[in-house]
Amino acid sequence: MDGIHDLGGKHGFGPIEVTQTEKPFNSEWEAREWGLSQCVDVPGVTIDWWRHCRELIMPEDYLLRPYLDSWAQTDLATFVDAGVISRSEALSGELEFVNEQLPPPVITTEQAIEADRKAAHRFDHTIEAEPRYQFGQTITTKLNAPEGHTRLPQYARGRKGTIHAYHGVHVFPDLSSRGIITHQHLYSVMFTATELWPEDNNTDHHIFLDLWESYLN
């Protein structure tokens, strides 16, 4: 899907300002949003569905909101869509129903870290089909954008690249965003900067993208 989120390689948005600070967040609410996004497990909400919802944010909102503010917007939208909270609860910040018999559990930071470690799992998978491409092989990426979510950015479509590495089999995000879980071979593809942006005269620059097999010809 082509949208305002696909900014890679586009002009007119100014330089990316990188600031070094010891603090991981600029404000307390950012830390709370990060924790909320990492801890809440909503049935049916995959990372790909979440990304697709974020890509539906109106352009003026997407460009002007702080980064984690758009995360909060997306979290609330997926919570409402899944029926976890109501729209009025999201707008008011107040629960419409409180179960007095089930107080929220209180755990320490160490307990939270340990629980997160135990919940960790592998993301690779196995399928019968052998990988179609090998290291060093030249490929061309698909030109047309699919409907919905995709991990093939606009600036890399219809471009020639070289298979640089093979990462095994992983969930295919385009279908995962629709609730369909399938798996494909995943590769790192190397592009020259001049292939992606012909006006770049420096042939020593390379860009590496992790791309699923169906993105490649």
Question: What would you note in describing this structure?
Answer:
By secondary structure, the chain is an alpha+beta fold. The protein has helices at residues 28-39, 47-55, 59-64, 67-82, 87-92, 109-119, 173-176, 193-196; strands at 138-140, 160-171, 183-192, 206-212.
Low-confidence region ranges? none
Q: Please, how many domains?
A: 2
State the order of secondary-structure elements, H for helix, E for strand.
HHHHHHEEHEHE
Shape: globular
Which structural class fits the helix and strand makeup?
alpha+beta
Secondary structure: number of strands: 4
CATH architect. name of the largest domain: Orthogonal Bundle
Q: DSSP helix count?
A: 8
CATH topology of the largest domain: Cyclin A, domain 1
Cα gyration radius (Å): 21 Å
Helix content: 25-40%
SSE arrangement:
Blueprint: H1 28-39, H2 47-55, H3 59-64, H4 67-82, H5 87-92, H6 109-119, E1 138-140, E2 160-171, H7 173-176, E3 183-192, H8 193-196, E4 206-212
Antiparallel strand pairs: 1-2, 2-3, 3-4
Highlighted features:
4 strands; SH3 type barrels; alpha+beta; globular; 217 residues; 2 domains; 4-stranded antiparallel sheet
Q: TL;DR?
A:
With 217 residues, this protein is of the alpha+beta class.
